[in-house]
Amino acid sequence: MHAYANPTRFLSLARPLTLWFLILGLALITIGSAYGLFYAPADRLMGDSVRILYIHVPTVWLAMGGWTAIAIASIVQIAWRHPLAAVAARAVAVPGALFTALGLITGSIWARPTWGTWWVWDGRVTSVLVLFFLYLAYIALAFASSEKGGVSRVTAIFGIVGAINIPIINRSVVWWNSLHQPASITVGGSSIDSAFLWPLLVNVIGFSLLFGAIVLMRMRGILAETKVEARLKRMAAE
């Protein structure tokens, strides 16, 4: 884990990975979305509205995955004081909030023809909305932090505590009488027909790679900004 604690060593790996993640991610999203939108059949019950799920499912998955990454990075920051952990957590926050917003928007678009309304205070929907507000609060704390390029210890603790909402989102359709459909993909297998499953999995991988590329770009930007600030301070002190 500490092998890439050095920013120079990390950047030597991050630069090529950013490009590859971006290219492969966009390619997979194009393939998965094209197949899902134009070739996959309409659902027997939901009709063509099922096609929004090829975007909705990956964005909500990454909304949850993003905060999980923040929590893990925050633990590493506090426990091992890894130099890049705070940078990684801060880099995840903005794309995490963006993907959460996209998940809420696409969910509302899907809900209108399926549930007959744009919004319900359903357990799953409400807990994802709470996640969006947690992201906004984390971003505000991170920008208010005195830690250059990273986040403060208080912000890291908030990232860990906020992870309590992740299992709530995951189990909300089980714990409460929810309008939202139960999990279709579990450890035990999938209840989704292969005609819908394969383009969905392609998009999940594609969006995950795109998310990774955005995070790496943001980490590189934060490190560059920190380097410039340190150089300006040295010049001012001379």
Compact overview of the structure:
This protein is mostly helical. The chain has helices at 7-38, 53-80, 85-115, 123-144, 153-161, 165-175, 194-237; strands at 185-186, 189-190.
What layout of secondary structure does this protein have?
Elements: H1 7-38, H2 53-80, H3 85-115, H4 123-144, H5 153-161, H6 165-175, E1 185-186, E2 189-190, H7 194-237
Structural class: mainly alpha
Bulk shape: globular
* Topology as a string of helices (H) and strands (E): HHHHHHEEH
Main beta sheet: strand number and arrangement? Answer: 2 strands, antiparallel
The count of β-strands is 2
Helix content: over 70%
Strand order of the largest sheet: 1-2
> In what range is the share of β-strand residues?
under 5%
The averaged pLDDT comes out at 86
| Uncertain regions spanning at least 5 consecutive residues | none
- The number of helical segments is 7
As a whole number of angstroms, the C-alpha radius of gyration is 20 Å
Distance between the termini: 36 Å
Describe this structure in words.
The chain is an all-alpha fold and 238 residues long. The model has no long low-confidence stretch (mean pLDDT 86). It starts with 6 loop residues before the first helix and ends with a helix. A two-stranded antiparallel ribbon has the order 1-2. It has helices spanning 7-38, 53-80, 85-115, 123-144, 153-161, 165-175, 194-237; strands at residues 185-186, 189-190.
